[in-house]
Amino acid sequence: MLTYEIENLRVSFSSYQKLECYKKDIKHGKRHLLRLNEFRGSLFESHSPSLTFLKEIRNKIIHDGFLDVHPQLYELRENGVVKERFILLPDLNASGKFEKYGSRSNFYSYEKKLNIEIIHLVKEVFERFEKTVEELLK
Fold this sequence. Notes:
4 helices
């Protein structure tokens, strides 16, 4: 909604008006109306594995209780001393979706650690955010 308002800035502010997105009933899920929809490197690129992963993990947490009250936390110990604590992420395919086989999911063969992956993910999201804002300001 914010992006739609920025793309359709008003020139007259003589009176207080409703936002354009409310006038046209534009809410979440109507991003096809945005100029930035599918803009490469932006937050609106739908074929990004990282953004797909964010959606997938959000759905797993909200709908499936993944990382619930007592998540599975692993420890790497050397000589009885904890060297690392981590949460394993289920296997992802190249498009960022969780691997499934029939009705089974949550395979952990790639040994991806959430505490490592989150660093790369945050970096990419901020880069996409920056590119999105730069494009909006043009």
